[in-house]
Amino acid sequence: MKTTPYTFKLFIIGIFALGLSAIAQGQAHNDHDHEEEADHGETHKQHDTHDSHAKPKSDVDEHDHGEEQEHGESHDAHEDHDEHGEHGDHEEGPIKLNPEVMREFGIVIGKAGPGTLHETVVLPGEIQYNREAIAYVTPRYEGTVLSINARLADKVKKGQVLASLESTETLRPFELKAPFDGVVVAYDVTPGQTVQAGIPLFTVADLSTVWADLKVYQRNIGEIHEGQTARIEGGHSQTSYTGKIAYVAPTVDEHTRTGLARIVIENPQGIWKPGQFVKGTVSTDEQKAALLVPRSAVLKNEGDTVVFIQDEDGFEPRPVVLGSSDAESWEVVSGLKPGEVIVVENPISLKAEMGKGSFGGHHH
User: Rounded CA gap, 165 and 143, in Å?
Assistant: First the structure.
């Protein structure tokens, strides 16, 4: 076939058209690929964003910590349950104590029985020397002190030489002697001193007995009589003595406007000191009771008034109904029988340990 310039021109135009078409298709393909990639990228971003909103890091941490906390609380609750379970499983019952533990905690037992209640009056007082057992040692002659053989607070025997003197008139020596067994409670003498006859140089007192002199207020004068029982207490020392009123003064002191009641106290150990302030509880009336317990035996427990009894099983609280009382005792109307053994001192120690299987870690 013969090619003409016109034909060749058409051929070139065709090839050019095909090239443009191919280029256009390639561009469209590339655009499509970029759009897909862009769409895919946005999809990934949306997915990431969705994940970020659905489960932020802080929420994850809080969730994890929350689970751990709940788990910890569950574990603690389980432990608490175990602990309470151990206590809950324990059955309360009598407390068993051996004598050593009872002594250690000052628990004293005794028997409940009949007794006497006393109406009382409390009076202030003071310990005095027994004026019937005190002596002032004086020289019979004027003289000069040669030597001193006893001094303040010395215990002396009857006939013991207290001091030696020389008579200023005859120049003969003579001695001062203790008139009875006692204690030197005062002396006023020095070596070489010249003293007059009849001047007290030593005071010797027998302190095996002393007087408790109580002041009786005017409102109580008609209630106080000889022979009444009086309990003398020595302040913070917890010392006490019970005796009878031996003397009631027939007059009232014009300065204090009080009467005087005196109790003679046996004092072999020298516990009561002259000059010591005391109080006296005087029994002014009496009432018999079928069953008495000391006030120290009674205490409150879960709303009940109880005493602790002891039987073959141990100690346990017993509710009681109380009646009249005085400074030392309660009348028991019901809940207790005469002869039952009760705790008369320190029942509070048993109350503190009630419901446990041991007392302060000590087992029977």
Answer: 6
- The two three-digit tokens of residue 31, written as one number: 């655009």
DSSP 47: H
Q: Burial of 202 by CB count in 10 Å (0-12 exposed, 13-18 middle, 19+ buried)? A: buried
Gap between the Cα atoms of 126 and 130, Å rounded: 12
Calpha distance 348→331 (Å, rounded): 20
Look at residue 269 and give its three-state secondary structure.
Answer: coil
* Residue 199: partners with Cβ closer than 8 Å, 6 or more residues away: 138, 139
Q: Give the containing element (helix H, strand E) for 252.
A: none
How far apart CA 130 and CA 265 sit, in angstroms, is 9
**CA separation (Å) from 97 to 107, 110, 180, 310?**
10, 16, 52, 10
What is the C-alpha to C-alpha distance for residues 207 and 211, in angstroms, rounded to an integer? Answer: 10
Q: How confident is the model at residue 355 (pLDDT cuts 50, 70, 90)?
A: low
Q: Read off the pTM.
A: 0.58
Distance CA 279, CA 214 (A): 8
Q: How many helices (H) and strands (E) does the chain have?
A: 4, 21
Radius of gyration of the chain (CA): 53
Amino acid letter for position 344: V
Residue-by-residue DSSP string for 132-153: TSEEEE--SS-EEEEEE---TT
Q: How far apart are CA 139 and CA 199, in angstroms?
A: 7
Q: In angstroms, how far is the first alpha carbon of the chain from the final one?
A: 136
- Which tens digits make up the pLDDT trace of 169-225? 999 999 999 999 999 999 999 999 999 999 999 999 999 999 999 999 999 999 999
Strands of 50-111 (E only): list them.
108-111
β-strand pairing of 173-177 with 194-195: unpaired
Q: Are 289 and 115 in contact (CB under 8 A)?
A: yes
